[in-house]
Amino acid sequence: MTAHVLDVRDGAACTALVDSLVAEHGPPLWVVASAGIVEPGFFLEQDAAATLAQMEINFLGTTNLVRAAAPSMVAAGRGHIAMVASAAGLFGVAGYAGYCASKFAVRGFAEALRIELAAAGVSVTVSVPPDTDTPQLAYERPLRPAAIAPFAGSGRSLPPQVVAAHLVRTAERGGFLSAPTAQLAAIARMQGLASGIFARVQMRLLRRSKP
């Protein structure tokens, strides 16, 4: 196993690293985009830099990694792309406007990309976990606005191993949305019904357009 330090905001650096790994090991079978930060605070009370940082790392960082890795996967005709969004990518949470925006963006990106890559044999799965026991959660909790803390912290947090295992199981069976609790799964099903229908219609249109 090897590890590399990378700033996912740097698209050129993402491409250079992925290209070197592909040259050494071949196209990846799995790509997991999970880099993310959260800066709680009411939108009008926060500096604009907090919103920008969350969008750059959470959303654009995800697109930078996928843009670097996907071409070799498409050329190989196989692979899984997994992205980590959040329960806050399913519904808005006061005090988390920038974070919600970035995670909604990840989910929307994943929904569109799974349509575009389906015919190439590359599947896309997105995780929408609740609070997960990580150093990021430990940083976030004391910064939550007191007025919203009873809602934002109402559910139990999950071990990262549980979230990761659910994501892998979902991807391996060809699922799109990985919601690792019963409550989130119910919310996701309600929201996903329409998007699933729209996705199938678009996939058929793309298949018909192939020469």
What does this structure look like?
- This protein has 211 residues and is an alpha/beta fold.
- The protein has a single domain, classed as NAD(P)-binding Rossmann-like Domain (Rossmann fold, 3-Layer(aba) Sandwich).
- Helix content is 55%, strand content 8%.
- The protein is built from seven helices and four strands.
- It has a four-stranded parallel beta sheet with strand order 1-2-3-4.
- The longest helix is centred in the first third of the chain and has 29 residues.
- It is globular.
Question: What percent of residues are in strands?
Answer: 5-15%
Which sheet architecture does the biggest sheet show? 4 strands, parallel
Tally of discrete structural domains: 1
What would CATH call the class? Alpha Beta
What is the mean predicted local confidence, pLDDT?
91
Walk across the major sheet and give the strand order. 1-2-3-4
Low-confidence segments, given as residue ranges, are none
CATH fold topology:
Rossmann fold
The percent range for helix content is 40-55%
Q: Please report the number of helical segments.
A: 7
Tell me the series of helices and strands, N- to C-terminal: HEHEHEHHHEH
Specify the CATH architecture.
3-Layer(aba) Sandwich
**Corresponding CATH superfamily:** NAD(P)-binding Rossmann-like Domain
CA radius of gyration: 18 Å
Alpha-beta content class: alpha/beta
Task: Find the count of extended strands (DSSP E, 2+ residues).
Answer: 4
What distance separates the N and C termini? 42 Å
Shape: globular
